[in-house]
Structures are given as structure tokens and as C-alpha cells.
Design goal:
34% strand; four-stranded antiparallel sheet; alpha+beta; 2 helices
Amino acid sequence: MKDLGEAVRSELKEWIKALVIALLLAGVLRTVLVQPYRVEGASMELSLHDSERLFVNRLGYRLHPPRRGDVVVVDLPDEDITIIKRIIGLPGETIEIRDGSVFIEGELLHEPYLTQATLDVYGPVRIPEEHYFVMGDNRQNSRDSRSLSIGFVPQDQIKGQAVLVYWPFRVVRLIK
């Protein structure tokens, strides 16, 4: 029969093993599957609000390309920041903004998430292959692909799709 000290040491080793495994799994999940992100600014109002915290799915775009309407986190290495925007235009498409609306290949883009018109005039411009055109939902207060400092976003700068707001807790919701 084991003495009490040996039993305690054995139990402690098991707890330490379990903790190490849990930390390793959490690290893998965070780097491969999901990553937390904090919304900064009002460029995605009314869909997302300043200081909300959300989870970003990092795995999805390894399985399929980004899709129009996805809310994504984009890495801007030249500025050492990340931004959150909505994918509007896909590689190879022609985009134009006029008459308060966005047109893709000359067709009006239906954007039910907007509460105001898009006032700019832009294009028509063809989006390069492997690049995306992103915009904030709060078009009058968004620095996005319309800006020369951001422009078309290369696919490898899209870090993942925003999927769930988890904080503040009273507004937990899936991101549409």
C-alpha cells in the first residue's frame, strides 16, 4: 500500500499532466482554430460596436476561400494593425460605387446590413486575382479598400472570419 506522501505526489503529477495538456490544447485551438479579437472604432456600426470582443475562425479559409458578406479580420503589416471589415468584392470582379450603392459586374449589390447609403463614387475597377475589396458597414466612418492606404486586400492578409461576439455578455450573438 502507498504511503500518504506518495499518493499525494502521484495525484499532483496527474493534475500537472492534465494542466499541461489543457494549456497545449488551448494554444493549438487559439493559433489554428479560433482567436479572440477586440473591435476598435465605429467602422462596423451597427453590426459590431467599439470594444466588443469576438471570436475569429482561423481554420475556415484553409478549407474554402472567403465569401462575399463575410466579416473578416485583416492584418495590415505596413501599419502593424488589424482591422475588421466586410468582404464586398471578390477576386476578378469589377466593382463600382455610384448613386449611393455598390455595383458588382454592373449589378446592384443587396446589402441588408446597411442603414445608410454609400456616398462615395468609386471605379469601376477590376479586383486583382487573390485580392478582395473590403468595406466597413458604417461607410461614412470607415477606412477600407476605398482608401489608397488599404486598397485591395491580399488573401494571405485575411486572418479569419468573425463568427461570435462573446463580450459584453448581455449581447452574445452570432455574426451575420
